[in-house]
Amino acid sequence: MVQLTQIAHELIRDFIKTGDLVIDATCGNGHDTFFLSELVGESGMVLACDLQQLAIDATKDRCRERKNIDYHLGDHAEVLQSLLEKNQSSVSAILFNLGYLPGGDKSLTTQGPATVSAIQLGLRLLKRGGVLSVLAYVGHPGGIDEANAVESFLTKSIDSAELHKIHWPDESRPATSPRLYVVCKGSLNES
Question: Which spans are transmembrane here (predicted)?
């Protein structure tokens, strides 16, 4: 069975070019950061964020050969807010992998309100033709509430803004299955 992370990578690959600026808003163990680093190449930049030093360290270890990554320890909403304050609005892709750090403290999880705030900020940072991917895991306390908050926010944003669905969770999925949301800002032909 194909993992949702692989599906997310395949869906966003065509939106990212060499030299782009991209964000891994929850770098965890560094898998997405490494993938993004390869796509943007030496002339691009990956901003890798996480609330836990353990995650930053794991990502640095996985990506130690990569020179195109800038690490940010802190809440993803705060990191994205600081980018907005610097008038940065040319981000090609933002990835969120929600839940807890695999192999880490399972009581430390992303939270719905902070995640929705970060997604809202992320959409402002995305350039037209940029893509946002959110993989929400629901099997931990608070996970379903967070996924529902993300889905509600993105649905309202799609209905009221220039966002287009690229991928949405299957309605027939089991309630405890992870959920992948991928949206594009602007026309799908602008990437």
Answer: none
Residues 94-118 pLDDT 10s: 999 999 988 888 888 999 999 999 9
Extents of the domains making up the chain: 4-190
Q: Is 34 within 8 Å of 57 (Cβ atoms)? A: no
Closest listed residue to residue 119, CA positions, set 128, 109, 110: 110
109 bridge partner residues: 100
99: left (phi over 0), alpha (psi -120 to 50) or beta: left
Beta-bridge partners for 91? 21, 126
For the beta sheet containing 126-136, the strands, ordered from the edge strand earlier in sequence to the opposite edge, are 69-73, 45-50, 21-24, 91-97, 126-136, 179-185, 163-167
Task: Report pLDDT digits (tens) over 135-163.
Answer: 999 988 899 999 999 999 999 988 766 89
Any idea which architecture 4-190 has in CATH?
Answer: 3-Layer(aba) Sandwich (3.40)
Cα–Cα distances (Å) from 54 to 33, 40, 45, in that order, read: 15, 25, 22
3-class DSSP state of 71: strand
